[in-house]
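Archive transcription. Copying these from loose printouts into the bound notebook so they stop getting lost. Printout 1 of 2:
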Amino acid sequence: MTETLKIILFLTLLISSISTCFAASSENLNVSIEEIIPISQIVTPYFDSLVESSETGIKEQPIISASWGPDSSRLLVEASINSQSGASLHAIYLLNADGSGIRELTSTPSNTKEKSLGLHILENPDTQETSWSPDGNRIGIFANINAVRDFYVTANPDKTLIKTAGKCNYTTVDEIKENILDIEWQTNLMWNPEGTKALIIMDKDPLNYQLYLIDRDGYVLQKLTDTSDRVETAIWSNDGKKIAYSITGPNKDEETGLWIINENRTEDNRLVDNGIVIAWSPDDSRIFYVDANSGLYSIKADGTDEVQLSTGFSRIDDVLSFSPDGKNLIFSTVNDEGVTMFLADQTGKNAKVLEEFPGYIIFKPSWSPKGDKIAHAQDDNLYTINPDGSEKSLIASAITDYEWHPSGDFISFISSDSVFVASPDGSTKIQLTEDGDDYRFLADRYLNGWSPDGSRLLVRNDFKDLSVIKFEGYEDPLSIDFLTPIEGENCELRIRCMSEPVTDALLTLDEKEIGFTSSSGFLNYSCPDAGRYVINASKTGYRSTSKVLIVEVNSSASPEKFVVPETSSDSGKEEDSRPEFQVSGFRGITAVLFLLFFIRRRNSL
């Protein structure tokens, strides 16, 4: 018996070793294209009709960009022309991820050379502004007339209703242009984590910007500051309960500096008298800021334990990025002598040099979504490195951009105008598109190329040709809409896929079944008591999704945010549909080993 146990233990260790070897082998990288969807060709006929109706005589082709919805099922598309004649035309469209169901949210057909209103998608990680609210139920659009006003409008993606954010209540483009001077100068639109409210900085006098809280439709809920100076920037804490904001002025006074305030305007405390907030730590215990001398600091939310990370930190060129688990961060200094990248713990302490080199053409360091690698460009070469500084690997040369896949299983990059993917150590590369296709990612507009679920990639040829690459092995995602969710009343849930209703989708509330959708995709249910709930929708052949529902004591309910979508548990498939490293040949090796074991056992009898 003892000998048998030894053999079993030996075989187990051997199988584990072989499994690890094969799992790490990037020869098993399996990524392939299912189809390429020409978004520009879909959008252009609609925009051409806008050009004709505008009677501007514009002949240029529109510049087209797009932003993924939080559940990966929809695309927000911007088409814009800034004509050499002086007039401009802009339109915002909504499409399904497969290119179907296009419809216009808003456009500017009445623009003239003398007065042209611009409309633009928001997506800037430096300021944390995004067009989509985290729950996908509202869209923020940046609008402006050059040298006259910068402001925002909000839109309902399920309707064509728009409204100016702030104190005015204009709902059409013509009404906005006619009353443009009534609208405040605005900046820093930032959704709260629940997607139900937003911060906005605004005033008729941009030198006296104040901080406001608005609801998701743009109506003012509360004025949070009343300073004689200027609110420069503001950021929500990750739990959405506090706001860090910075006040600047011509001179230091009792109002300038870095402040923290609760959403309900209580406990408004100044931490330092000189600081521009740039980030909260993932656990909201600390705030990171830059002072007037470009020094990078972190400080506890109670104003104690200030730590200086670096001098000469630039909010434009440098990077501050937390690891996915929130335990570490990387930051950089970029100057005429080159680049230095540091690794520190989540407080900013215990910093050490991770990389140092001259030049920084495409530096752009980023964590793998798994947190096990850090990628960066050095000149035009792409590298990955472990967080401890070991195993620096050359992924590719002569790149023009790169982006991690949301799974962290591989990294995508552009080289020779083509799209490639590579294993995190660079040992295997797959070319996905032909040479000379002139593809680019959307990094120039701060837009993410990969859909959140990793099933699709946005690429462009030049600025006028936008496409979606769809990859094999992914199910299309379900999306959940909350309709009339009032505590104590009957409510409706709607389940769709690419805007089409989904019949017989299973819905659960906190893992308890509440029913199946009807032929029109609806489910009526009794709204639960006040509290926080997770609603999940699943059906065979679709990618399941979850959404958090918060029912408040005042009988109002609102969706909070998307939980990371998962493959449907009842899909009937044994493997996750995402491309991954497969253990090639493992079953055959296992069978051979067990055969050897039984031969040994038989000979011993």
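Printout 2 of 2:
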Amino acid sequence: MQRFINNPDDLVDETVAGFVRAHRDLVRLDPANPRVIVSRNAPVSGKVGIVTGGGSGHEPAFIGYTGRNMVDAVAVGELFSSPTAKSFADAMRAADGGAGVAVLYGNYAGDNMNVKMAAQMLEKEGIEVATVVANDDVCSAPLSEREKRRGVAGEIFMWKIAGAVAAKGGTLAEVQAAAQTAIDSVRSVGVGLGPCTLPAVGHPNFQIEAGTMEVGIGHHGEPGTRVEPLKSANEVAGDMVKIVMDDHDLPKGSEVAVLVSGLGATPVNELYVLYDRMEQEIEARGATVYRAYVGNYFTSLEMIGATLSVMVLDDDMKALLDMEAVAPGFSQTGNAAPAIQPSAAPKAATAAKAQTATAEGNAPRAPETINGPSVKNAGNAAIVEEIAAVIVENKAWLSEIDGKIGDGDHGINMAKGFGRAAERISGSKMTLDAAMSVLSDVLMSEIGGSMGPLYGLMFQEMASSIKGRTAIDADAFSNMLNAGLSGVRSTGSAKVGDKTLIDTLVPAVEAFDASKADGFAPALQAMAEAAEKGRDSTVDLVARIGRASRLGERSRGVLDAGATSCCMILTELGNGFSRRLQD
């Protein structure tokens, strides 16, 4: 791997720093959060704020669409990973001009979780939030299940249309409706010719064999719906148009806007070769191309490939599409929007509001009475450090597992989050619950993705259930496990059999509770054995939740990364308690 990087762990922060320096005339950093980029024009008093966010590695998406008549604030995530709830919340605050905020983002598990949590924070502050979820990727789910489709390059049209309505003074409801109409009018497809590499992994997390192409590939390297021999550019263009236009089923005479984006390493001249045939194919179907955009608009690191997005237009949509827009990744002349003036001073979120704002858990607590062997709460923060060490040690393996049916970032982000927490805990005299709270805060405020809120809430509720106790006996440990399970379930909808961490966590909790009467140590052993069986059961499961769910049968035969990391956590938690049990 030959790349222009320093430390892979610093890549996103250095990208943001360079982007803001290069485009200081258009954007600025939010003073409350270095992972939020704000338009120089925002916030505007009385104007609906437009917010988006997503993982890094897709540049110019998402940060490149921050600017005039486009997006007002962007939350920035790790490579291929959702921004945190805190970053989404801070982006919403930064964009708020008093008329509410429209959050327009892609349909991914982590984004859904973190946007939902952020919106709940903002609701308590009196800021009205509306959301629209992009789902334009035709190959990621059948039309009958369109709500399951991924959001891909069609999001750019959604931002453009919604930004224009907001610039014209539209209400929050009008902006939301326009964004929904825009994304409902878009269909997209991607074709991959070569893989991409996450710098922290150092090798591609999937392969596309020479002489083949992957049709329906995702922006994070998620496998496509089929692999077939590489065809000529004209044949590929024809196939892509057929996939998109068949799903559209447009009447003759329709007008469309077309966006063709490279995936990072595709020469731009090849994109024009594709577009030349694409327009011919579209017009052969009785449609007319009103506007075309060809270039690198939504990439995937250095993946070789291209995406096609087609949006059907009416007169109102054409007028909104034609409005001028100025952003680092998208600029066009056109009809001017009404004059706007930024508020007197950019709003910096107050310290109180900028906190991760997840309420302290309300998990039930076992009575303080200690029965049988127990582990002291005081001075045992090292249990969390030991868990973190196991996660960091297995970073590469977790990413390798994830890369087989996902985007390959699970081990990277888990190691970063658990490692940072361990550094902050190291050498302290924290109680176990305090250490768990530190871990929870780091995962939810700094890591994001889907694992950030899932494990963050798990440890938050675990910490709450034992806070104030002098020691944790078997009953308190049971309460702690069940509280953690409730935390996970509070933000996720997975069930046993869906190929997620739930397949490890539920049987482990049940096994501990069933064996508790035999003693604390035997129950810990039963928990570990059940966790391993739950993890291993995911090999034969078909994913029903998350990115891998779109692969259907192709997700079978591989361990689930979340179930695997959950097994590591529970096993080391049990080991840590077993080593410290006192009568």
